Amino acid sequence: MSTMLLAGSPIEVDAEGFLLNPDQWTPEIAAEIAAGSGITLSEKHWQVIDFCRRTNADKGAPPTVRGITKGTGISTKEMYQLFPKGPGILASRIAGLSKPKGCI
Amino acid sequence: MKKLLILGGGTAGTMMASKLRRALDPDQWAITVVDQDDRHVYQPGLLFIPFGIYRARDVVKPRRRFIPNGVELVLSGIDVIDPDTSSVRLSDGSRLPYDLLIVATGSRIVPAETEGLTGPGWRKNIFDFYTLEGAQQLFYALERFEQGRLVLNVAEMPIKCPVAPLEFLFLADWFFHQKGNRDRVELVYATPLDGAFTKPRASALLGGLLAEKNVLVETEFNASEIDGDGRILKSWDGREVRYDLLVSIPTNMGSEAVERSGMGDDLAFVPTERETLRSKEHKNVFVLGDATDLPSSKAGSVAHFQGDVLEKNVLRAIDGRKLCEDFDGHANCFIETGFGKAVLIDFNYDTEPLPGRFPLPGIGPLSLLGESEANHWGKMAFRSVYWNQLLAGREIPFVDSKMSLLGKWS
Ligand SMILES: Cc1cc2nc3c(=O)[nH]c(=O)nc-3n(C[C@H](O)[C@H](O)[C@H](O)COP(=O)(O)OP(=O)(O)OC[C@H]3O[C@@H](n4cnc5c(N)ncnc54)[C@H](O)[C@@H]3O)c2cc1C
User: Fold this and answer.
1) Would you say residue B403 lies in a domain?
2) B359 preceded by cis ω (within 30°)?
3) Inter-chain residue contact B297 with A66, CB threshold 8 Å
4) Per-residue pLDDT at B132 exceeds 80
5) Residue B374: how many CB atoms within 10 A of its CB?
6) Residue B162 pLDDT greater than 60, yes or no
7) How many CB pairs under 8 A join A and B?
8) pLDDT at B181
9) What is the pLDDT of residues B186-196, one digit of tens each?
């Protein structure tokens, strides 16, 4: 665990840069994390981020890419354009949530 | 008479039927198992079929032979589970009511989830080996394969037996060496993972073996589409991998019955309490084996370890006692590495695979996280242990359901 200065406030993050407490998240923080990955947040990005945060609040865990495409109607292809490389992981990090659970 | 209903007569369902028939009073509890066919496939054996090490007759036996006396086996498709009325509707429309339900419907491959996978080339130069039919056809394809590029692709995680793709590659390397054309065959592994395996320590070891055996690895590769005519495997981020022979581990999903019942997550796996194995939604429903959404490996050995916990909890639920929170995610698997050797790894939710000796601390005879011939014979002997001990719900000598740290070097 470490503390990072995000959008002017000290925020607790894990070793991979995921927020430890989703309540510390603000839209400004999202924009700053996104910028760090070379992403400027658009309307579509926000749609995904809102969905991720809602799902997390309801179910206690961030959604998978499959869950996001089902829930938002945004295609997988578009998800990879919006959040290149690993859309599930990246969307979750920008939304201030934990790393989506992988499997062992 | 109370009714215990078990859905799925595969590894987990058969094992639970055996255990619970011994544990429950036959005058008080009727036990019924439902499965769609009478063909029990020893799935770990499917790995060996493409290489001609096993034939179909070595891995298939009638299900009914392993269902114990005093348990009814119903051969029928399962249509939907209706937890609100505690009953299950079968394909012919008939209903089976239950007092307690165990969902053990496993996971299946769904090639249609990847665009183009079942298009031109499917079962011609594109195969799976997670089904008996796929594994048998791949055997003929490998026999014929003289030169070119063999690509193994894992479409999406999670998959059952996450080490099977690696084993396939190790065995393919050995197979082509023996056939005398290894120098004319390129082996490529395209995986969505960021390394050879999900756990860093084992990933380093297995990644080393892949490099040693000259297998090219393409990581973080999320397959978007297969162009069967052009023989190209494409990823969402625009990478293209050309193949001559594509061996695919398609998307794994839970049973269609779970999907139709609305009881599954996005991949039709049932949300399950991670330590007790009770369904998160319904108090008289338990889940085990590949059907759960747990982050433990989907493997027969895991189902075996879960079985001990589930037996206790079913008895506790019947008596109205508090469930024990005992399942630690323990998994234990042999990984065939070719040339008559294998590696053994042992891990759980929280502990990474560690080197050491297994199952007797300090003695073995099996070595953890190292290649050895003894491990290979352990893997080959697993088939007989599977049919005779595991399905009968018996103890496997020296192996406890809770992971032990004795004899391991951390
Ligand atoms: C290639 C390969 C290699 C493997 N190697 C290993 C290994 O080395 N070690 C190891 O421990 N594990 C290994 N496994 C994994 C292991 O086989 C599985 O984890 C195990 O069989 C899971 O048991 P299960 O009872 O949950 O599912 P299954 O054994 O698959 O049983 C599920 C049953 O449910 C039935 N069913 C599902 N839906 C319906 C329906 N709608 N109607 C009626 N019946 C239905 C199916 O017919 C099936 O019989 C391997 C798997 C594969 C594919």
Assistant:
1) no
2) yes
3) no
4) yes
5) 14
6) yes
7) 41
8) 98
9) 999 999 988 88
ipTM above 0.85, yes or no: no
Q: Which pLDDT does position A103 carry in this prediction?
A: 41
Tokens 């665990």 locate to A1
Residues in chain B closer than 8 A to A66 (CB atoms)? 266-267
Decide if B395 is inside a domain.
no
Of B199, B237, B266, the CB nearest to A104: B199
Residue B159 lies in a domain: yes
Find, in chain A, the residue whose alpha carbon is nearest to that of B192. Answer: A86
> Which candidate in A5, A15, A103, A104 is catalytic?
A103
Q: Which residue has the higher pLDDT, A67 or B285?
A: B285
Four-point Cα dihedral B167, B171, B173, B175, nearest 10: -170
| Closest-lying ligand 1 atom to the alpha carbon of residue B14 | 25
Whole-model pTM: value is 0.92
CATH topology of domain A2-94: Arc Repressor Mutant, subunit A (1.10.10)
Count of structural domains, chain B: 3
B268 with B193, same domain: the answer is: no
> Does the distance separating the beta carbons of A85 and B266 come in below 8 Å?
no
What's the pLDDT at B375? 85
Chain A residues with CB under 8 Å of B295 CB are 101-104
Residues 53-82 of chain A whose Cβ lies under 8 A from any Cβ of chain B: 63-64, 66-67, 70, 76-77, 79-80
Task: Answer yes or no: is B402 within a domain.
Answer: no
Chain mean position to CA B194: 21
Strand order in the sheet with B2-7: B71-75, B29-35, B2-7, B100-103, B285-287
Q: Which of B191, B266, B351 to mutate to test the interface with A (most CBs of A within 10 A)?
A: B266
As a whole number of angstroms, the distance between CA A3 and CA A19 comes to 10
Tell me which chain B residues have a C-beta less than 8 angstroms from the C-beta of A80: 222, 224, 236-237
Q: Identify whether A52 is a catalytic site residue.
A: no
The confidence score (pLDDT) of residue B405 equals: 57
Q: pLDDT digit string (tens) for B172-182?
A: 999 999 999 99
| Average pLDDT rounded to a whole number, residues B231-249 | 96
- Boundary residue ending a domain (B288, B319, B350): B319
Give the separation between CA B245 and CA B151, rounded to whole angstroms: 6
Which residue range is the domain that position B203 belongs to?
Answer: 111-251
Determine whether the interchain pair B295/A103 forms a contact, defined as Cβ–Cβ distance below 8 Å: yes
B276 and B163 assigned to the same domain: no
**Spans of all domains in chain A:** 2-94
CA gap A7, B38 in Å, rounded:
62
Question: pLDDT at position B362, please?
Answer: 63
In the structure encoding, which two tokens stand for residue B403, read together? 């992971």
